[in-house]
Each structure stands twice: as structure tokens, then as C-alpha cells.
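ingest -> fold -> write
write: protein_1
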Amino acid sequence: MSGAAEVSGPSHVRPVARRAVFHVGGYERNDAGAFFGRLEREFERFRSCWSVSASLGPVVPVRPEAASATVVYEDGFRRTETELTFLDYDDLVASERARPAGRRLREYAAAFADYVASGTASGFFRANWRFGLFFLYPVIGWSMPLLLGCLVFAAVRAVPVPGAGTAAVVLGLAAALATLRHLARRLLLFHVKGLWIAAFDVAHGRAPAFERRLEAWADVVRDRLADGRFDEVVFVGHSFGGMLVLDLAARHAARVAAAGGVPAFHVFTVGSTAPMVTMHPRAEAARATLRYLAGQDGVQWVDVQALIDPINFFRCDPMVLSGVPSPRAGPFPFVYETRIRDMVDPAFYAAMKHSVFRIHYQFVSANTRRYGYDYPMLCFGPMPAAYAVVRGVGQRLFDPAAPVLD
């Protein structure tokens, strides 16, 4: 579902002077220091690609769960200030990793079995087989060392020498454990296992730590927007953050409505894994979130997808996958299909295309080639969000040297 005609944009476009962006990252060890440090490095590529100025101001802790900094964009004709607030759950990820390994493996086994027994896993394969393989990723990763260990055991055991049986056991275990340790570190097997445990808990409505964090984030959003000084408000959720940011957006919208206001903002889910939660039969609360957002006419949702990234649901409508009908006449969300190959130069792409996680991170990285979708330009540039999507889908590239937005 793509095409500029499917999204309505303003006919007379005024640049955004002040914007608020709330960013929720994926399930990873990533605190505010790491996030803003990486963004500062990405700005070097952004400035070079678009021939513009972009600077990141001091990072200010807002609460233990959030930090904020001002991004200033200038291109000679326009100046846009964006208050970027990073919403942090690094401590929740760290707490899962700190639990005993045996407990974590039992929790993962329970989550894996539940996804299979509930039919959710088969739903992944029907929707997008690449994501289905991502579901199997930890199991495949752990099976390889075990298979190697069995092969070593069989080979040594077959040697007709005294003590071959004992040596086969020792060498087989050593080969399996050494390989597992290497792959776990290199392929992030334990990290991905933690993601599935978190998704299982959220789907079943038994993730109190995430519930408390979302309420704290909603307080942060309320406080940052209290003075009404922003032209535009944007929520961004990457990867597992795509599910969390939808929940946050619904909480914020409900608070605005309860106070007599009309919720009006944009939500961008980029490389989102939200359906890993919303497709589960037990995830009624998550589906209620989607229904509520769909009923808020002032809330616009864009889901950005890419074929080459297996950690998203390419060419899938998240509402349809979740079994939630939308009351809107137009698409909700608008599905924005991108080509990561076209975002970067050939040498850069060749260096990153074999790294699943680096590809996945391009959704929130700067490009090396001008392209319709560019995370820093979307979040910090002068184009209103709806207009940026219209141009991006049609590949009408923004020209920073042009004096007006047309």
C-alpha cells in the first residue's frame, strides 16, 4: 500500500519551526548517553548527504526514564528546532539479562512453546516468512553448536582407541560450548531470546515493569508538551519500540481527550515488530490500543517497512495482521515501503547487507544518499510530517537549496 495519492498533505506548506519528537528504541542495551552519542555521529553523515547544518545541544535528564536535547536544523532558508526526548528502558533490558541463565532459558522455552501452540508463530510465516525465520533465529542459533558437538562426539567415539568414549564426551561438549559462546556473542542469541520473553509477557498482560514505565513516559510527554509551543508532535518507535510507542501514543491521546482536548500528532513506527505482540490471541489489550488510536481522527500513523530487513513485517498492514478493523476511510496506518539499498551508496550497502542488525538499524540512521525516507530529515528537518511522507513515497526529493517548500 503505497503511493502519494493515498496520503493527503497540505496545499500551502509552511516549514516547521518547532517540533517535539519522542523516540522509543528497540529492545537493546541503549541508554540516553549511547543514544545521543550515536545520533551525534550520525549527524556527520546527515550534514554531508544533504549539505545542511544540524547540531545537537546539551543532553538534559528529564527523569530517570527520559532525557532531552534540542536539535537545530538550518539550510540557509529554514531553521527548525526540535526538542528530542529519548524514552529509556535500558534498565528493564538489563534486569532481564541479569537473571540466572537457567531461569532465562526456561522463560524463553515457555514463550517459544506458547507462540507455537497458540498458532501465532504460523501466523508469522503466513504474513512474512522472513519474520518467521527471525522467530526461529535463537533456536537455529543454539542448534548449530549442539549439532557440531554431536558430530565431534560421533567422530571421536568411532576412533578405535582406549578411552575414546570419554574423550568423545569431553571434546563434543567443548566444541558445542565454545561454538555456542562464540555465536551467542556474535549473533546476539541471548539478546534476541530476551526480546521474545518481553514480547510474550507484554502480549499476556503480565509485564508490570513495562506498564509502570509507559505511565512514567506518559507523564514526561504531558510535561514536555504542557506549554503548547510546538508546531508538530511526533512519536517514533523503532523495532520493539514500535509496540511500546503505540501504547504510549494511546495513553497520551486518552489524557488529552479526558482534559477536553483533541489529540493531534503523528506516530511513526519504523522497522516495527509490533505484530509480534498484537497477533497473539491473548493480546487483547494491545489490540484495544490499536482500536482506540484508529478512532482518534487527529492521530496519523505511518508504518515504515523494508523488504531486506527480516525484523519487520514487510508489505503487511499491522491492523489487518492484528485482526482489528479500522473505521477510517483512508489507510490507518499508512504503509510506507522503502528500499534500504537506495538509502546508502553501493560500498556502504555492501559492507552492511550481511549484518541483519545493521540493516535493521538503518531505519534510525542517516543515509549517505538522498532518498525519500531519511530518519534525521523526517524527525529534524523543516518538512511537516504528512508532507514529508507524500514527497518521500513519490520520491520527490526535498531540495534544501530551494527557497520554498512546494
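write: protein_2
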Amino acid sequence: MLSTIPTFLRVPLAILLVALNTLLHTSVLFVAAFIKFLVPIVGFRRLMSRGLVWLAESWIGVNSAAIALFTRTEIVVEGAESLRREGWYLVICNHQSWVDIPVLQAAFNRRMPFFKFFLKQQLIWVPLLGLAWWALDFPFMRRYDKATLARRPELRGRDRAETRIACERFRTIPVSVMNFVEGTRFTAEKHAAQQSPFRHLLKPRSGGIAFVVDAMGDMLQSLVDITLVYPAGKPSVLDLFTGRIPSIRIQVRERVLPPELLAGDYDNDEAYRERFQAWLNGIWEEKDMLIGRITNAAHPSS
């Protein structure tokens, strides 16, 4: 293991490995995506889509190996035994740190279908990764605030239509549609500003996953509810490679999507919207208590 070498050497080496891995895999991925774009044959494009996912999983595999090589962090996953690679899942998780994404990728890569996130439109301009996400059919979404909708009412409902178009692409190969339903990373300041009723979580937002359920409800086999806990406290990416994260706990609960929520008009049916939000709030109450139990077990005297 390389976790024993001095930090001033270990961190640059880890960053260099991840950077070179990203450059190599994205270069190959861009060529494959261009070939896919040039050949308008449905079967060929479906085959190329699987190849692109294989490249992405290979990239994640190398990054995950770097975490294992350069750190002593123990990632403990419980409850994921029933997950299959050939399936369609809606995945939700609490969001605390930029570390969340590489940790989730390391824990579930090739264990379930490839994670696809709904991304903000601006992220397409991230060097290398923006184009890679586009090539992998990650949906880029525009979100309109109330002021914009009041000024341009013709935009109302466009985000839902874009979600449906994106989800149609997910029908061809197995996928895990990933959503951080809090909408942002947890901080004490955001928690206070929201007056969140949860001790360890921000308020969940149901609109995003409601649109996915509306578009894919007939093919989603379950909801995968992931609870991510850092018993030593919320970390940064630098903490990961400097060895300041001793352990990470991941609890998985596979849930049946309630039949009464599989069809409804979230935008215009207030009763449906309230039912959907109440269901998600109930999951968040359970998650909040679970995080408390895990944290207390790690710090019994606190």
C-alpha cells in the first residue's frame, strides 16, 4: 500500500494518477462518442452506448483503486446484496461533501448499473468531464426560478419535458438514475437558513425524482435509498488523500415505489404533490435517525 509514504509525496502522486487516468479515458471516450454520432444505426449506437459505459466504469475502477492504494479509509457497505447490474433503479442519497461522488462510485461501480446524474446546464463547460458527461448521455437541466417563469411563462413545464426526453434515452440499457434530493451539500449555515426539521439533513426536494418517476415509473424496479455517513465528520477531497478519513459507512435500503405515486401531475395536482413530498419526508425522517445512530455508535461519549 502507498498510504504509508509521506503526505507531501502521496497527495501529488494520487492527484497525478487521477489526472492521467481521466485524460486517458476521456480521450478514448471522445473518439468512441464521435463514432457513435457518425453512425446513425440504432443497434450500433446501442452497442456503442454500452461501450461508453464500460469506459466510464473503467475510469471509475482506476480512481477507486487509487483510493484503496493511497488511503487507509475503510468503506463499509451494508444492505446492497439484492442489487443487480441488469436493472433500472432510482437512487437517492444525502449529500455532505464533494467526497460523496467518488465514494459512491467506488462502493457501487459494477455492482449495479452505472450512475447517471441530472446536472446543471453550466457543468457542460467543465474541462474534459463536461464533454464526457455529454457523451455518456448525462442529462443537463435548466432550472428556472419563479422570477424567470413570471417573466417568461412559456418556459413553465420545460424542465419536466426535458426530464422526460432524457429518461427516454435511459430505456435502452440498464441505468441507475441518481439524485441528491437535498439539492446541495449539507452545511450548518444552510441547515439553519432552512430551519430544517432534521438534525443531520437538509430538507429533501421531491420535484426532481417525481419527474423521473413520471417518465420512467413503468420500468423502475425499485428505489435505492443510500445513507452516507462520515463518522469522523464531514471531509474534503484533500482529507481523503491525506488520510484524515478513517472510515465511511454506507447503508442501503431498497424500497418499493408506492403504486399511488407512479402516476400523477406533480406540477398541477397539489394533492399528489403533497403525497409525494410526505412520502419523501418519511424516508428522510428514517435516514436522520439512522445517521444519528451511526454517529452515536462511533462517538458513544458525545
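write: annotation protein_2
Residues 62 and 137 are 22 Å apart (CA to CA).
The chain has a mean pLDDT of 89.
pipeline exit 0
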